[in-house]
Design a protein that fits this description.
Number of strands: 17
Keywords: ATP-binding, Kinase, Nucleotide-binding, Phosphoprotein, Transferase, Two-component regulatory system
Largest sheet: 5 strands, antiparallel
Number of helices: 20
InterPro entries: CheY-like_superfamily, HATPase_C_sf, HATPase_dom, His_kinase_dom, HisK_dim/P_dom, PAS-assoc_C, PAS-like_dom_sf, RsbRD_N_dom
Protein name: histidine kinase
Pfam family, one: RsbRD_N
CATH class of the largest domain: Alpha Beta
Helix content: 40-55%
EC number: 2.7.13.3
């Protein structure tokens, strides 16, 4: 037993404690919170029980003198049972009283100018040691009593302690009545302060301390907890993910599920929520997602590179062969200028025929290369697949693009799904290449009337120059850097045409960018009826002998040569370099026939044929083209009476224009034969 000296350490300690009681309580609570990662919870003051112990200690030191050392442990005894109820661990009690001794010595020294007499230090150590031993004994006694009384519960709690899954029990008033130790281990902070309190007030500080958030980055609120939703909706809530940052270091991905508990009468009794560590699985998922994005990017690059190489090799081979033929033509023309000989003309005619054969073989190569497997394809699905294939390529680099998707679920188109996906990829790359700065790329689909669907790919690049709109799909453009892109776009445009659609390019109103627009025929649903026969266009007619002919071609040299040849055959020929001029001439004068170039900058020859057929159903109409018409749908082919391939056979053209018949007598529309042109007088492939 400590004896009282002249300095009387008991009275001195009592004086310091009476003066600095609040400071000691505050520092003690702070040190304890640091030791235990305790959370400051509203309505659950950690300082209150500590202040009560200090009040008793000051009273005993004042009133009972040296008997305080004997009576103080009895006062502290109930504190051990109190901490057991709060789910403190035995080592937590040891830390608590160790913290008290450290704080008492620090405060005493501060009040005495930095001096701590040995006898005061001994007194503090003895007080703290006796109190800690008494609290530990009380804790153990309660623990033994509980173990005897609730042995099964103790065994169950021991099992739950060692499980990898944390369990939390919530009551109807949204308070947490039970939480296993793995919950604290998974979160990285003790949740004992949450037990017995309303979740909205007690859980918020815990979530804030661990920086809880959703996988997408939004803060995780108490209301997002599965047990809160299960209480509100009276149904199970599964697979809610939460990311946390543990105070001790390291992040974790937790999966939470909640299951309602029902009384025998069907009343809701509470909710059980589980916590499962999915950190490793989440990390692997992120790694797989990153690898998949990289794979999609590489696939897109490979697709782009392979297409460009194939087109380049085709163009190079065709250019080599054509240059050889043109060299022969130029040499023969040189000889003709020096001396006229019929054999020179015959040789020129043979060379032109060989060039025509080469073009036919190129077109045949295209038909073989693009062997299709047509099916009813959901347009929106193909657009999503193409975008996923290219998303990594579009969103990385120095100028990442923001992709905005507006899909209107317009329906199905008749196409090859693989070719359609590549088509969308090509247009995405073309739109990307126009945007040198970060911006938005917008994809939208919608239904246009009852017959067509449209896909619009709009970029935020500079507006297209007006003169460039007509050259956009010209595969032989001579602009620097443009041939490869133009060749790819020409292939895309031809593919769309083969499916009975059209590809156009336009500027956005207000100069906010440009857009590629794909229009394709919509596949009718099984319950949709075909339009009545009266609304469908009648087939081409046969007529009296043709005299007045309108030649429509945006290439002036071709148009003039055609007019000169037909003029020498006795026809009255008028020229038009655009569809707009052709329609104006058609309104002013009656024409018996029209020869229409298939590819023109404003509208196609097929669309012009549709307009002319509506105005003059009995007119004789023919398409003149250097392109392959296989793949055009039957309704488009039915717009004209014949298709002539360039270089044109003048004899066959004269035979076609000279056909006659009784006025009003009808002929069947041209049928599409595999591998051949259509209509009377058509040229073979």
């Amino acid at each position: 037993m400590l004896t009282v000296s002249a300095t009387n350490p008991i009275q001195k300690l009592a004086q310091v404690l009476e003066k600095e009681r609040e400071r000691v309580a505050r520092l003690w609570a702070k040190r304890l919170r640091e030791e235990l990662y305790e959370i400051e919870v509203p309505g659950k003051d950690l300082r209150a029980p500590l202040r009560q112990l200090l009040d008793e200690l000051v009273r005993l030191l004042h009133d009972r003198g040296e008997d305080a050392l004997r009576l103080w442990p009895e006062v502290v005894r109930s504190h051990g049972a109190f901490r057991y109820d709060q789910r403190f661990e035995p080592e937590d009690l040891a830390r608590e009283f160790k913290a008290l001794g450290s704080v008492l010595m620090r405060v005493y020294a501060r009040c005495e100018g930095g001096l701590l007499p040995p006898e005061v230090a001994d007194l503090i150590n003895e007080l703290v040691g006796e109190a800690s031993a008494s609290a530990q004994a009380s804790y153990s006694r309660v623990l033994r009593t509980e173990a005897v009384r609730f042995r099964e519960a103790a065994v169950m709690e021991s099992v739950l302690y060692h499980m990898d899954v944390g369990i939390l029990l919530a009551e109807l008033d949204e308070s947490v009545s039970f939480a296993t130790q793995p919950v604290s281990r998974l979160l990285g902070v003790p949740v004992r302060s949450v037990v017995g309190a309303r979740a909205l007030t007690s859980l918020a500080p815990v979530l804030s301390q661990v920086n809880a958030h959703h996988p997408a980055g939004e803060p995780f609120r108490v209301a997002d907890m599965p047990f809160m939703r299960a209480l509100k909706e009276s149904r199970p809530v599964r697979g809610v993910m939460m990311e946390v940052e543990r105070p001790g270091g390291g992040a974790a991905s937790l999966e939470m599920s909640a299951t309602p508990i029902w009384e025998e009468g069907g009343e809701l009794a509470g909710v059980i929520q589980t916590f499962t560590d999915r950190t490793e699985a989440a990390q692997k998922t992120r790694e797989l997602s990153t690898a998949q994005d990289e794979l999609r990017r590489l696939q897109g690059q490979l697709l782009q590179r392979t297409r460009a190489q194939s087109l380049g090799q085709l163009a190079s081979g065709a250019a080599h062969a054509l240059n050889n033929f043109l060299n022969v033509v130029r040499l023969r023309v040189t000889l003709l200028r020096r001396e006229f000989k019929p054999e020179h003309l015959d040789a020129l005619d043979r060379t032109v025929g060989q060039i025509g054969d080469l073009v036919s073989r190129l077109q045949e190569f295209n038909v073989q290369r693009t062997e299709e497997h047509l099916a009813d394809v959901v347009l929106d699905t193909v657009v999503r697949e193409a975008l996923e294939l290219m998303r990594g390529e579009l969103e990385r680099g120095d100028s990442p693009l923001e992709v905005e998707l507006h899909l209107g679920e317009p329906g199905n188109v008749r196409a090859d799904a693989g070719f359609l996906r590549e088509l969308v990829v090509t247009l995405l790359l073309a739109a990307r290449d126009r945007m040198k700065q970060p911006g938005k790329l917008t994809l939208s689909t919608r239904k246009e009337g009852n017959a067509e669907l449209s896909l619009r790919i709009q970029d935020a690049g500079p507006p297209f120059p007006v003169e460039a709109l007509s050259r956009m799909f010209d595969p032989l453009t001579r602009e620097a850097g443009a041939p490869q892109a133009a060749l790819q776009l020409a292939v895309v445009k031809d593919q769309v045409r083969r499916w009975g659609g059209e590809l156009t390019v336009e500027n956005v109103e207000g100069g906010a960018g440009g857009a590629f627009v794909v229009r394709l025929p919509r596949v009718r649903e099984g319950h949709e009826e075909e339009p009545p026969a009266s609304s469908r266009m009648e087939g081409p007619r046969r007529f009296q002998q043709t005299r007045r002919v309108l030649v429509v071609d945006d290439d002036l040299d071709n148009a003039r040569m055609m007019a000169e040849v037909l003029g020498e055959e006795g026809y009255d020929v008028q020229l038009a370099q655009s569809a707009e001029v052709a329609l104006q001439l058609w309104e002013r004068r009656r024409y018996d026939a029209a020869l229409l170039d298939a590819v023109m900058p404003d509208i196609s020859g097929w669309e012009l044929a549709r307009e002319l057929r509506q105005r003059t159903p009995q007119a004789l109409l023919a398409i003149v083209t250097g392109m392959d018409v296989r793949g055009q749908n039957r309704s488009t082919l039915a717009l004209v009476d014949a298709v002539f391939r360039k270089p044109i056979d003048v004899g066959a053209l004269d035979e076609f224009l000279s056909q006659s018949g009784a006025p009003g007598q009808e002929a069947s529309p041209p049928e599409e034969a595999p591998g051949e042109s259509v209509g009377p007088g058509a040229q073979g492939q």
